[in-house]
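As noted in the main text, all predictions were made from sequence alone. Below is one such record, for Aminopeptidase N.
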Amino acid sequence: MARSVRLVPVLLVCCALAGTACGGGVHGTPGGSGVRDPYFPKAGNGGYDVTHYGLRLGYAPDAHHLTGTATLTARATKALSAFNLDLLGLEVGKVTVGGETARWNRAGQELTVRPREDLDEGETFRVTVGYSGAPETVTDPDGSKEGWLRTTDGALALGEPAGSMAWFPGNHHPSDKAAYDLTVTVPRGLRAVSNGELRGETTARDRTTFRWHTAEPMASYLATLAIGPYDISRTTARDGLPVYTAVDPAEKKGSRAVLARIPEVLRWAERRFGPYPFSSTGAIVDRAADIGYALETQSRPVFPGAPDITLLVHELAHQWYGDSVTPESWRDMWLNEGFATYAEWLWEEDHGGETAQESFDALYDHGEQTYEDLWSFPPGKPTDAAHLSGAPVYQRGAMVLHKVRQAVGDEAFGDILRGWAAAHRHGNADTAGFTAYVEKQAPGKDVDGIWEDWLYGEGKPERP
Ligand code: TRP
Ligand code: ZN
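Prediction:
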C-alpha cells in the first residue's frame, strides 16, 4: 500500500504536464482494504465489484493439501492502481490481471494486487490467483469454527461470517454478491458437493472432477464445498425443481424422513414467503457434530448431522431471508436470523402447534430462563462481533417481526414478508431499509415505537 501511495502524486504531475485529462487510467488509486463493516472492518475490499468467481480446486484429504486457481471477473468502481483480495493462509503463486503477470504482496488476510496498468473506473477486468497449501480452520469471535473443516473422510468449507477466505481469494463481504462456477477434483470414491447445479462429473484414473454452477448472485459466506463419501439423492420438487442431497452414510437413516420433506417445506414457504429464489435445492448432511451449527449455504444448506424439521425449516427459510435478500452489513444480521426464527414460529402455527403469539408470549414471560442473554442488547445494534449469533438477534429479532404483525394485522404482515423478499430478491438490504419498507406498506400504522423499543432499545421492553 505504501508504494502506491508514493506513486500517486507523480502520476498526477504527469497528467498535469500533459495538459489533458488522464486517459488510459493512469490516475488510479488503491482500493480500500475493507468496506468498513461495523463488525468486520477488514472484510471485503473497496474499489471493485465481483460479478463472477471461477474456482478450480483440487483437494487431497490425506495430505490435507489444497491447490487452486481462482479467476475473478470484476468491475472497477473507481480508477484503481491496486486492489485487495481477502485470503487467509495458503501460498500464493502467480497472479495475473487481464492476462498479464501482476505484482502482489500480502499482509494478514489482505492480498494486494498491483496490475501493470491502472484500471479505469467502470472497467471490467479479470484477475487470476494461483494458490496452494493447507487450508485453515477459522475460529469466530464467538468461538465457533468455520473456514476449512477437516472431517474423518474429507472436508467441509463453511464461511459465515469470515471463513470463505480460508479456501478462495475474494471480496469476502456480504455486500458483494456474484455468480460462481466451481470445478473440484478429489480422489476417486469421494464426492465434492457445492451450491447450485451439478454440471458435470468425470473420472479419470484415480480422481473425479465435479463441476458446480450457481447462476444467481451469492454472497461468499454462503458458498460451500463438502468433500466425502456421501450418499447422493437426486429428485425433484414442484415444477421439476432439482433437489440434490448429499448425506454422510452414518447419518443416512436419521436423515431420510426429514429430507424427504424438503418439497413440502418449500411448498409451505412459497405460500408464506413467495417464489423460491434459486434454481435448485437440497441439503448436505455431514457427520460433523463438533461444528455444532447448521448453515444456510445457498440452495443447499449444511447440517452437522441429521436435522429435525424445525432446523430444516429454519435453513430453508434463510434461502429467502439471508441468501436471496442478503444483509448489507453484519450489523443487519437480525434480518437473517430474526426472519428464519419467525419462520419456525409460523411453521409451528400452520401445523397445529403453538401460535406465533404463544411463542412470543412464552419468550416474553420467561425467555431469559432459556436464553440468559435475551435482553442483553437490541437486535438492530449487536454489542460486537462475538454476539452476532446471540438470542437478541434470533429470538428477539423474531419478536420484532411479531410486533410488526400485531401492529399491521395478519394480511398486511403476510404481504410484507412476501413483498420484502420480492423487493430485494437476489440483492442486499439493511435494517433502515426494512423499517422504511414497513412504514410504506402500512401507512398510518404506528410502528415507530416498535423500532424504538424492540429493534433499537436497550433492555426488556415494557409489556404494551
Ligand atoms: N446462520 C446459521 C444459522 O442460524 C448459524 C451461524 C453459523 C451463525 N455461523 C454463524 C450465526 C456466525 C452468526 C454468526 O442457521
Ligand atoms: Zn439462521
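Residues 1-25 have pLDDT under 50 and may be disordered. Residues 135 and 167 are 6 Å apart (CA to CA). These features were considered when defining construct boundaries for the mutagenesis experiments described in Section 2.9.
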